[in-house]
Amino acid sequence: MTDLLAARLQMALSLGFHIIFAAIGVAMPVLMATSYREYLRTGNAEAKQLTKAWSKGVAIFFAVGAVSGTALSFELGLLWPGFMKYAGPIIGMPFSWEGTAFFLEAIALGIFLYGWDKLQPKLHWLSAVAVGIAGITSAMFVICANGWMNSPAGFTWNGGQPTDVDPWAAMFNDAAFLQGLHMVIASFQAVGCAVAGCHAWLYLKRKHRIHEKGLKIAFVVAAFSSIAQPILGDLSAKSVAKRQPAKLAAMEAHFETSRGAPLLLGGLPDEVAGETRYAIKVPKMLSMLAYGDFEAEVKGLNDFPATERPPVAVTHIAFQIMVAIGTLLAGVGVIGLWLLKYRPKGFMNPLWLKILVFLTPTGFIAIEAGWIVTEVGRQPWIIYGYLRTADALTRRPGVTYTLALYAALYSILTIVVAVLLTRQFSLLDRDLSTSDSAKE
Amino acid sequence: MALSTLGNTVFLAIALVFYILFGGADFGAGILELFSRGDQRRAHRDLIASAIAPVWEANHIWLILVVVILFVGFPEIYLELTSWLFIPLMCLLVGIILRGCAFTFRHYDTLTPRLEGLYAWTYSLSSLWSAFFLGILAGAPIAGTINPLAASFQDAYVTPWCNPLCFSIGLFTVSICTMLASVYLVAEANEGQMTAHFRKRARYAALLTLATGALVFIAARYYSSALFNNFTTSYTSILAFAIATVLLAPMWWSLELRPSPTVLRITSGVIVTLVLVGWYGAHFPIAIYYSATSNTPNLTFQAAASQLPTQNSLFSALIIGVIIIFPALFILLKIFKSATFKTKSEAN
Description:
Strand order of the largest sheet of chain B: 1-2
Radius of gyration of chain B: 20 Å
Shape of chain B: globular
Strand content of chain B: under 5%
Low-confidence stretches of chain B: 340-348
Order of helices and strands of chain A: HHHHHEEHHHHEEEEEHEHHHHEEHH
Oligomer: heterodimer
Number of helices of chain A: 16
Number of strands of chain A: 10
Structural class of chain A: mainly alpha
Radius of gyration of chain A: 23 Å
Low-confidence stretches of chain A: none
Number of helices of chain B: 14
Largest sheet of chain B: 2 strands, antiparallel
């Protein structure tokens, strides 16, 4: 394995691991604050029990997210010194703000998790709201930095050195806002879906009202964000078409430049032959989606120099997975909201609940796929158009070994967290059965 | 040096001091658990857990602040550290990940004694491990052991930290963390037997700090004459180290007298701050001391600093950040630590 591949895999592994916990940190506090507010307004004991159960999960996920994030802040330098040398000072602005927001999030979370008996309920509720706001803000800031890699701004490239650095312009680059919003909404989708799925599964096992409540709160959040997401996705694709035409072409596996380009659904891109097999073609749709015009010209991969083409198969397939899940979830969201409003009994129908259980991991799969599109689709660049990933790589030896170390560590952690979570479910189940028998 | 660069250097120092004072004490608490024996073990663990749980996430974000200031404001320093010291850095990161996870998992997943024991051992050993490598990382940049011209893997990536001098600094850091933790815990423990236990630990740790501190000097004398020279010729260092050592005495006695825990906490905090001032003060404005054989000019903060617009924006971000974070931290500590302050002062 080359050092470049090892370093890219280590980065992918670390980010792919961290992103799950980060997404939970963004969306879960909002769910928690919602159920807590219901308890404060109605005095509903189940809403309180639900809030407490959720907050245990948040504590576990937040801890793992925080430590893996700490590791990431060093890994950038450990693996990509050539990148950090230039990028650190230019995109330091969002990183400093992300640090501040994250600090606040940690403080507010400490107050929320351990403040149950120490604060007035309303103040305590506010701490949960603060966790949510800080979480969303820190996600937006950190994605500003990633957006800059896709859409560099705020400097002049002068003989291989950045000069005239403008940290503000770098922070508010063209990709930042849409990309950030896309991710925040995706976090709500993924977390909402996963939580709804877990409660649906638990409800099928024990028809307790706490699961019904948890399921409904989580589903409503997932449904609304899933219905909004296609619009954001479309805007994001148009923005990519404008800023990174090679990435768009790879996403769509579009090899030949053409007017009225068709949209490919599925298919297996063959990079050597320069064609995509087994795909369903929707005539002129790609031109329409990318540029809002059925006859617009879409530049194909063959018109980019071979050294500037991203890996097509990975990008295209990941993109297909993301879009397919997005479409599916939007449909499920519409049906579910309709059921909730007009057929509340049908919403709790075992068949529908089984569908929701089946959907549990889909949002997270879409998030991972989306990040693969963003990152692999930008290759061979680390700073798009300015610095190649290969040139940013560390020169020290032994990258394969650190990859192995991280792979082992994250695998163990994944297993432990999974076991822990299932145990939390059975603990909750045990608590519910004892409290039920106490009532009788 | 531009005003904002100087300001960022000061913020870097503050963040590092706070990381040692708060995050270091967390490491120390984990180390202390290694020495809890018998039937008291359970009570000690509970005390430590209740003392740390609400604040530990916040305590460790100081490290993220250190990293951000480094790669935004002083990218050269960040890159030199992540390059030559990548092995101890990886070791520290693994330790941080394991101890954070084990601590949280132990809190929420204590179903069987065996499982709890596994988490507890992971937490304690990785705390010890992390504190040791934190010390190595703090020490190596100015120990004069980094050689940018080294030809072999051994000389480039192992020797800079794998030497008696850096190991002694690692041990010194372990002692300091343990001392901080036990002093804080004397203040947290409300019950006579437990207070006595941690008072004893605090004294052992103070003695250990004195001994390992002396060890660092001896190691410097033998392995890095430049470092030893700096220590013995810089008034900042001499003064800071002297006051820190002298302050150990009142801390020692006040452990017995049981004054307000605030005094104890502040004294120990001042001692550790002075040690850091003495350590880095002797070399300022040099950030990284290269080995004498490499003939490389030492890296100063000025030379490592990023461009002025970045310095200015970082400085303003840090000031606004402090305005937001300090009140929030104050609220956090007031909610969870005022109870111990109160009961102690009432008891007196």
